[in-house]
Design goal:
This protein is of the alpha+beta class. The protein is built from 16 helices and 37 strands. The protein has an 8-stranded parallel β-barrel, surrounded by 4 helices. A 6-stranded antiparallel sheet has the order 29-30-31-37-33-34. It is elongated.
Length: 754
Amino acid sequence: MAPKLDDFMQWPEIEALEYGECSRPQDVLGARMADRSHVLVTAYFPEVDSVAVRVAGAKKEYKMEEADQQGYYGVLIPGRKIPEYVFMVEKKGKRREVPDAYAMDSLIDGMDMEKFINGCHDTIYDKLGAHPMTRDGAEGTYFAVWAPNARAVSVVGDFNQWREDAHPMIKREPAGIYELFVPGVGKGDLYKFSIYQSTGNRVLKADPFANYAELRPATASVVWDLTKYSWKDEKWLARRSKWNSEKEPVLVYEVALGAFKKPKLAGREERDCFYTYKEMAPLLCEYCEKMGYTHVELMPVMEHPFDGSWGYQVTGYYAPTSRYGKPEDFAYFVDQCHKNNIGVILDWVPAHFPKDAHGLANFDGTATYEYADPRKGEHPDWGTKIFDYGKNEVKNFLIGSALMWIENYHVDGLRVDAVASMLYLDYGKNDGQWVPNKFGGNKNLEAVEFFKHINTLILGRNHGTVMIAEESTAWPKVTGKVEEDGLNFSYKWNMGWMHDFLDYMKLDPYFRKNNHNKMTFAMSYNESEKYILVLSHDEVVHLKCSMLNKMPGLEGDKFKNLMAGYAFMMGHCGKKLLFMGQEFAQKQEWSEERELDWYLLENPEHKKIQNWVKELLHLYRRNRCLYELDSSWEGFEWINANDADRSIFSFIRKSKDGKNNMLFVINFTPVERPDYRVGVPKHKTYQLVLDSEDPKFTGKTVKEPVKKVAKGRGKAAKQSYKKLDYKAVKSECDGRPFSFAYPLAPYGVAVFKY
């Protein structure tokens, strides 16, 4: 008696599939031995006219029987082993060949799972996510997602009308990864993962490893192929591999990409208008090159749902935001920066993630990416989740993200946001809101090890790149070597210097004499870390005022104060970072909803301070003494750190070879010092190379040369304003045997080379 198909159909399991509750669809769909002489083939093809099985090497096709009205088909094929086969699917008179995804071998092999489980699969993004490819002669997309505690997962999208029962994914143990190849799905198709959570809830989640996403407020992931972009920055990468940032100039322009400049688009509000990555590239490169910046640092461009978060609440750790274009457009942006000799640093946020329903929070119904205990897994102040840095798979997710940006998108470094919040278990928390570590302390030991690992890995694999910590406390050895129990960051943001500097600069000059130490204190700890001096976006928002409006006095005094402050910053030890708009004295606080107030440059005062910053940047780049010994007292010497009554600072920056050193003299009061005498170390001529009283910064006209050379060749010759020389004489001052006098203007800045 011939066997009947109905006797072998697995109806309970099929019903579970229909409701999206089956974690092992490969036990139902595909081919298996029904008995010793028949092979059962089961398939799911909703809304088609007919399905047949074509066996490789055989002329005959076996028409499948529609086993129920939902679209499940089955057929018994004579045979003692499972053959190679494809489905022949007919709809509206058209036939197409479809391979059986449930008969394909897994692309997640044992080694992949072992490495992932042990936290050492550095490029796990090559396996997880969505990857267009050809399998068994069919073009399609391979999907894979980590959801270890889900009851079942399916991939849904445009291609299956978002049906949760259409493409149930195959669970691979022991890693808890679900995978499936879907024929016919390709670049540009929208998708999500339908997850039947351990709680019994069904949710749609965006792909944590997605390369691209829908434009907000939509939240679907987009299938994309990152392998097609043709890079042209080989020369830059070759130079970078030999680059030692500690000995080179680093001038960083911090940019919110969507608010640097905005196009005027008819019928759209300014806040919703953005240049694309491709359009922004020439605008930003031209400006940075003209001003003299060496790097741009982009506030987070990883995909995020809310504009007002400025990118700091990330949902797509592998995707450049679609606000400004496609992934290859972002690659073009980086490529063009490199073509113009500008490095690209990205703001990266591994400290926390938002609770958006489509995001990482409670991903498979359990605390998948976050700590399970809310005392460890949530930031009360921010309303966000904290990554579980002790979970190997989570560490791989974060390490993979960092590596992807550096190795796939060629960026030159990452600025890691909110490092302190990761290092301290009690950060932003009250008693009872946090859990001590195993030693009873407040250090997150898992985060500490994470930083040691990721920094060593990235910097070891990508010579010339940098990892920068925004760390706001006195945590020791942030930039120290791992061998010495350091975290191995390249640089630390000098938040202490920033706050002291701004506190001082905001003071009425009359009160500065009592706060003199705020400007000198940073040098007392300068050797403890490798620092970047920052005046960042955080300081020009939330009623903190723009840099210009922080300054005391009337408007004219504000500009002079700011010029003096920027000169002090540029002369001080440490690499430099300035937030966009502050170089031309933006008046308004920064907002992500509007572009910078470029119209201000029509005002001569704003144009002059822009020129002043430009001059400072180029002066810095031209003179090795200003950057090659940043982390050592060998590169810095106070001439007078204690002239508090007059609020004047004088110091020297030294080069490694002792040549072309620079003397800075800066007056932070509106009091003129017509014959200010400054001590100097050598009996030499000191050339004035930068003066805030230069007519191009003051607007004044100078009919006669200000000064003659004290001692010329034969007859003293008149010199142009810029090139006045001052000959030191043997006259003790500031504890030095030699000195010279200089007419120091109110809020005056004078820089000399010797």
